[in-house]
Amino acid sequence: MVSPGSFAWSSNNIVVTVTGSYFASNAELLVDGNPVTVLPSTRTATSLQFNYVNRMFRSGTHSVTVRNPTSERVSNSRDFSLSSNPTISSIVPNVLSYVSGGSVEIIGTDLDPIKLMANGLEIPNVLWSSGGDRLVNLGILGGIVPGGNYD
Q1: Same structural domain for residues 36 and 91?
Q2: Quick one: how far is CA 12 from the chain centroid?
Q3: Is 40 in a helix, a strand, or coil?
Q4: Number of domains, the chain
Q5: Could you tell me which residue, 8 or 20, shows the higher pLDDT?
Q6: For 100-113, what is each residue's pLDDT tens digit?
Q7: Which of 13, 45, 115, 127 has its CA 20 to 30 A from that of 99?
Q8: Domain span at residue 93?
Q9: Is residue 8 part of a domain?
Q10: What would the pLDDT profile of 119-138 be if each residue is shown by its tens digit?
């Protein structure tokens, strides 16, 4: 079991507890197959904890397993999910050339710049850099996003 099973992607210092049975004293905690640091004072044969920090993983569902290194046995997986509630406050500039494309700044809160969606469709070939969870800079190539109103 993973607790909490769901929390906000932008949360900080959330202690996540994984409970089960027969965890070795040197058991490794894996999230999506990658090791995370177990809080040493919380390690028991039935419980491991790690500290989630702001934007440690992308938003969405993540799989947690425990590996006992001596036996190389890996537990069954349990999931937890990170939710985000992105809100856009402005887009600068709000008009681009379809032919040449350009740079756009998306300003808002809880932005998780994994993919750009326009009218429900994922826009491919977008280059982005993040200024945190409040600003995303996009380089949009010409001819990729069809002309139109994207309110």
Answers
A1: no
A2: 13
A3: helix
A4: 2
A5: 20
A6: 667 777 787 777 65
A7: 115
A8: 87-141
A9: yes
A10: 677 766 666 666 655 566 66
**Cβ atoms of residues 130 and 108 within 8 Å:** no
Q: Is the residue at 31 inside a domain?
A: yes
27 class by beta-carbon count within 10 Å (0-12 exposed, 13-18 middle, 19+ buried): buried
Q: What is the model's pLDDT at position 11?
A: 83
More confident residue, 72 or 115: 72
Pair (56, 126) in one structural domain: no
Q: Say what the pLDDT of residue 99 is.
A: 66
Q: Which residue has the tokens 């887009």?
A: 91
Same-domain status, 74 and 92: no
| 76, β-bridge pairs | none
Token pair listed for 37: 């640091």
State whether 64 and 91 are in the same domain.
no
Give yes or no for a contact between 91 and 118, defined as CB atoms under 8 angstroms apart.
Answer: no
